[in-house]
């Protein structure tokens, strides 16, 4: 089935005065208008095209790249507001419609808004919404601590920057963790700092000082912080000393402090390890 609001890989099946007709494996067809037809092509050649609805609400293909796809968020400019709603520039000829009921606050032409795009089940039309919170889900979180993620800055508050994580979850970069100029609409890579028990997600722009590939690395790091930055254990300590204080074997202890040392998080001294 040809997917509205998404990219589709379709085969050229015939040429007409209006353009090329493309089809999927099930035989569903869509027109690629002449203005988007590549200079060179062959029948049965496969093209990657974006499919949306034209001004007459008919499926049509394009080689233009939209700013947003189905079930995604993007920062879009409002081009027009009339008696039925607002219309956003999303990179295609026909603007994306945002009805009044889907506006978090009344939109104004010329302003920019974080917008979510969905397919209206009643009309089968692509529609936008600036009530983005209801389309984010932190019940089934798909990220973990230290994961590298893609974020979209949704808005700034006194606490910090609220962000959309991987087009799925809501997160927060606390103000004390912001060391550069960021604004609403910025897209960037970031890192998961913490996933809280209540479903809230803390995000940082820069990676933490280390990444715990070895699970015991984080444990020792936290033990060091709790002990004021120093533990009287080192690679010459006896297995019993290490076991009694940390509950780890000497082999696992050495592997973990080796990772911390490599990442320049600790110094290994004659009398113990020290947090840098």
TrEMBL record:
Conserved virulence factor B-like winged helix domain span: 219-275
Domain Conserved virulence factor B first S1: 4-63
InterPro entries: CvfB_fam, CvfB_S1_st, CvfB_WH, NA-bd_OB-fold, WH-like_DNA-bd_sf
Family, as annotated: Belongs to the CvfB family.
Protein known as: GntR family transcriptional regulator
Organism: Planktosalinus lacus
């Amino acid at each position: 089935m040809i997917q509205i609001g998404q990219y589709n890989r379709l085969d050229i099946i015939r040429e007409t005065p209006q353009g090329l007709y493309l089809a999927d494996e099930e035989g569903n067809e869509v027109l690629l208008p002449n203005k988007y037809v590549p200079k060179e092509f062959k029948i049965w050649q496969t093209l990657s095209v974006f499919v949306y609805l034209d001004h007459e609400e008919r499926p049509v293909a394009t080689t233009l790249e939209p700013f947003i796809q189905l079930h995604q968020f993007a920062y879009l400019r409002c081009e027009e507001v009339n008696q039925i709603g607002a219309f956003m520039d999303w990179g295609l000829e026909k603007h994306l419609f945002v009805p009044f009921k889907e506006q978090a606050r009344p939109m104004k032409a010329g302003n920019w808004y974080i917008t979510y795009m969905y397919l209206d089940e009643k009309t089968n039309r692509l529609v936008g919404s600036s009530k983005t919170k209801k389309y984010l889900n932190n019940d089934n979180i798909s990220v973990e601590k230290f994961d590298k993620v893609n974020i979209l800055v949704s808005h700034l508050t006194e606490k910090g920057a609220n962000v959309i994580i991987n087009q799925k979850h809501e997160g927060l970069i606390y103000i004390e963790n912001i060391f550069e100029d960021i604004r609403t609409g910025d897209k960037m890579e970031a890192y998961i700092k913490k996933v809280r028990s209540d479903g809230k997600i803390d995000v940082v722009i820069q990676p933490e000082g280390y990444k715990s590939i070895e699970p015991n690395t984080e444990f020792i790091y936290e033990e060091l912080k709790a002990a004021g930055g120093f533990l009287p254990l080192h690679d010459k300590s006896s297995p019993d000393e290490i076991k009694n204080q940390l509950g780890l074997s000497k082999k696992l202890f050495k592997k973990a402090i080796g990772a911390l040392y490599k990442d320049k998080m600790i110094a290994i001294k004659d009398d113990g390890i020290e947090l840098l």
